[in-house]
Amino acid sequence: MSRPALLRLAAAGLAVLALAGCGKKPGYVEPPQGRAADRFPGTYPNPALDPQPLPQPQRQAPAPTPTQPTTP
Predict the structure, then answer these.
(1) What per-residue confidence (pLDDT) applies to 48?
(2) What values do phi and psi take at 42, rounded to 5?
(3) What are the backbone dihedrals phi and psi of residue 52, each rounded to the nearest 5 degrees, phi first?
(4) Are 9 and 2 in contact (CB under 8 A)?
(5) Is the peptide bond before 32 cis (omega within 30 degrees of 0)?
(6) Is the pTM value of this prediction over 0.90?
(7) Which DSSP symbol is given to 60?
(8) Of the candidates 53, 27, 54, 31, which has an alpha carbon nearest to the alpha carbon of residue 41?
């Protein structure tokens, strides 16, 4: 890319960034309709909605094997 083209691209990028920061920003934004049903902001994850882990079956130790008599 040639130097003049690179400078134009950089100038255009700076102009876009400068314009993106302009504008009148409201001090207060009204919530949308249906605020009573809105659950935002909420904690994540919500423990009330998380699935509970399935109970794991109790593991039993294996039965001991009978020892066989040894011959001398």
Answers:
(1) 80
(2) -135, 160
(3) -80, 145
(4) no
(5) no
(6) no
(7) -
(8) 31
CB 31 within 8 A of CB 38: yes
Contacts of 31 (CB under 8 A, 6+ apart): 38
Q: Give the residue from 23, 22, 18, 40 showing the smallest Cα distance to 31.
A: 40
C-alpha torsion sign, points 65, 66, 71, 72:
positive
pLDDT in tens, 4-42: 999 999 999 999 888 887 777 778 887 777 767 676 777
Residue 43 tokens, joined: 């904690």
DSSP string for residues in 24-58: ---S--PPPS-GGG---S--SS-TTTSPPPPPPPP
DSSP 3: H
Residues shown for the chain: 72
CA angle 6, 8, 12 (to 5 degrees): 120
